[in-house]
Amino acid sequence: MAEDRFRKYDELDDDEKEVLDTFRQMKLMCDYARFKYHRLQVEDLIKDYEQLKKLREEIQSKYFSVYEELLHEELIEGELDASIWGITRDHENENWDAELRLMSEIKTNFDMAINMIESGEAEQSIIDEENI
């Protein structure tokens, strides 16, 4: 057993190469499906963030509208301090934008990996590593 060593791809018999090629293809197909699935999840999350930001803006607009109307009709007293809303919204947007940037980077990585598999670059890279 001590004399056993790993052989390079070029040193394998044809049937061994066929088995290795089949396993490589199966692994790439599995990775391809996983990457596409997770990319869809990330894209869906990005859409949710965009909807969240739009909804938050609509809620704030409605809030100010209702508040102003209640003040005008003298149903409530006080002043509306929009600066507090602005600070809160700026903070929310900063957090959401940071999370969106992270998800966008992750999506870009999935896009690159999918493109590498589709173009054959990933398989060639694996084959090149096997020959080292």
Features:
single chain; 132 residues; mainly alpha; rod-shaped
Structure, described:
With 132 residues, the protein is mainly α. The protein is 81% helix and 0% strand. It has three helices and no strands. It is rod-shaped.
Radius of gyration: 28 Å
**Uncertain parts:** none
Query: Could you state the order of secondary-structure elements as H and E?
Result: HHH
Largest sheet: none
For the record, give the distance between the C-alpha atoms at the N and C termini, rounded to a whole number: 23 Å
What gross morphology would you assign?
rod-shaped
Class by alpha and beta content:
mainly alpha
Instruction: State the helical fraction.
Output: over 70%
Mean pLDDT: 91
Total beta strands: 0
Tally of individual helices: 3
| Share of residues in strands | under 5%
Concise description?
The protein has helices spanning 14-72, 82-119, 121-130. The chain has 132 residues and is an all-alpha fold.
Write the layout of secondary structure elements.
Elements lengths: L13 H59 L9 H38 L1 H10 L2
